[in-house]
Design a protein that fits this description.
The protein has about 150 residues and is an alpha+beta fold. Helix content is about 20%, strand content about 40%.
Length: about 150
């Protein structure tokens, strides 16, 4: 795709990856948007503990299910058609009201962070120890996990 020419993504297209029993579809990548943003659909998503992005802002748009997004001291309950925003540098987390249910889109600004999902999927496929893989990939992508 040439981002300067625009592009269209079909409903059933995108790069599908899985790890930890969750499915991720990269709908728009850094390559397709000239690194402006990435768009990842998460299906039956994992709960994500409190963490901080050094480089990216995130926006979650809920398609299905009930989700709770914590951003700093704020806790947002978001359902279908609603969204929440988390700026870089502010601790945030996501969890499902009903574990492992739901579907949302996460817009990541700027792009490149979709590589985090790719690298974790590859680590799991290759049989790597996942705690070490999370630590390595998190450091590479500027993620700090906050102890609670």
């Amino acid at each position: 795709m040439d981002p300067a020419r625009g592009f269209k993504i079909d409903a059933d297209s995108g790069e599908r990856i899985t790890f930890s029993g969750a499915e991720f579809i990269i709908r728009a990548s850094s390559d397709s948007t000239g690194e402006a943003f990435a768009l990842v659909e998460e299906i039956d998503p994992l709960d994500t503990p409190l963490h901080v992005h050094m480089n990216e802002d995130e926006l979650w748009y809920v398609l299905e299910g009930e989700h709770v997004v914590q951003v700093g001291d704020n806790e947002f309950h978001v359902g279908p058609g609603e969204m929440a925003f988390g700026p870089r540098g502010v601790p945030h987390s996501q969890r499902r009201v009903v574990p492992r249910t739901g579907r949302f889109l996460v817009f990541i600004f700027p792009g490149r962070f979709e590589g985090f999902f790719r690298e974790l999927a590859e680590a799991e496929r290759s049989g790597s120890a996942m705690p070490e893989a999370y630590a390595r990939v998190s450091e590479k992508y500027g993620i700090t996990w906050v102890d609670q």
